[in-house]
Amino acid sequence: MKSWLITGGCGFIGSNFVRMAAEMEAGRIVVLDSLTYAGSLSNIAELTTRGRVEFCKGDICDGALVNDLFGVHGFDCVVHFAAESHVDRSILGERPFLRTNIEGTYVLVDAARRAWRNDPHEKRFIHISTDEVFGDLGPDDPPFAEGTPYRPSSPYAASKASADHLVRAWQRTFGLPAIITNCGNNYGPWQFPEKLIPLMILNAIEGRELPVYGDGKQMRDWLHVADHCRAIMTVVNRGEIGATYLIGGDDARTNLDVVHRICWAVDAELDRAPGTSAKLVRHVADRPGHDRRYSLDAAHLKTSLGWRPVENFETALPAIVRWYVEHKNWANELRTGAYRQYYERQYAGR
């Protein structure tokens, strides 16, 4: 690929992918990001300083801007990460999710269709989605597969399901060279502090309460962001147009298990007595419509494209905790007054 558009490239997964793409000398890279609360230019600052990546601050819902970028740069590949992605925030206010995730995706697929209609050869539109579009699983249900019907539970999941349908329709009707990926729960560096793992790490470091929804036995498939990015790059290079690929880490754990392992890792990193952080765990009222279990069958990606996850949660966790200890200033810059107001609204009194 000669010219890339990466939307949401200042967010968690997007910035990790931008770093990987830049390291692989993946051609000219343009990052389009509106720098909402969850995106920070500091996540890719050294790449823009070196001229490896060009940054454009803008909204994916701005059709004039998006079409102009296609006209100027002649993109060969779009990797679409940009999304409102936090379930809790979608329950508090759904409208930003409908706008960004549905309208923004429409603007992008339509701009790509128009730009590539005369020459779709060797073009790619990679749409990054989530396992949450499938709803949840019972304890004995088989994992989600590419053909699992959509059954979203939250406003966030519904908006992502809608975006998936748009991409699939534009591929089927207009020949957009699109591929959809659905991933499990990611973890790793540069993740916004409101998500489970960085929230628990940072709270444990600071000796703050660790709020766990309900009984904490919600089961998730955990995927290291580096494995996710490698999977996406594999799909960019060798994925089949019109296909969907599920990306799972083969690492299913309950939320409570994740929290207790974080407690152990933080205590070890800070040379505290074992069990110190575990005393901070506090069970709070569960959130509405909380899905009980996710599990992904990534066999299609593994067998057809040869991808395998490399990282394991237990072995990767100490390095992740160390990263957040060493990047405390980065986290503090993101945890502004608005973040603290959200935190209090979300957890106080539960």
Structure description:
There is one protein chain. The radius of gyration is 20 Å and the shape is globular. It has a domain at 3-188 and 225-247: NAD(P)-binding Rossmann-like Domain (Rossmann fold). With 350 residues, it is of the alpha/beta class. Helix 5 (95-116) runs parallel beside helix 6. It contains 13 helices and 12 strands. Strand 5 (124-130), helix 6 and strand 6 (178-183) form a beta-alpha-beta unit. A 7-stranded parallel beta sheet has the order 3-2-1-4-5-6-10, sandwiched between helices. A 3-stranded mixed beta sheet has the order 7-9-11.
Which parts are unreliable, with pLDDT below 50 for 5 consecutive residues or more?
Answer: none
Distance between the termini: 49 Å
Strand order of the largest sheet: 3-2-1-4-5-6-10
Strand percent estimate:
15-25%
CATH class assignment of the domain at 3-188 and 225-247: Alpha Beta
Count of β-strands: 12
The CATH level-2 architecture of the domain at 3-188 and 225-247 is identified as: 3-Layer(aba) Sandwich
Question: Mind summarizing the main beta sheet?
Answer: 7 strands, parallel
CATH topology of the domain at 3-188 and 225-247: Rossmann fold
Strand/helix succession: EHEHEHEHHEHEEHEEHEEHEHHHH
Helix content: 40-55%
Short description:
This protein is an alpha/beta fold.
Secondary-structure blueprint:
Layout lengths: L2 E5 L4 H12 L4 E6 L11 H5 L3 E5 L5 H11 L3 E4 L6 H6 L2 H22 L7 E7 L24 H20 L3 E6 L1 E3 L8 H11 L3 E4 L5 E6 H14 L5 E4 L4 E3 H15 L11 E4 L14 H7 L7 H14 L1 H7 L2 H11 L3
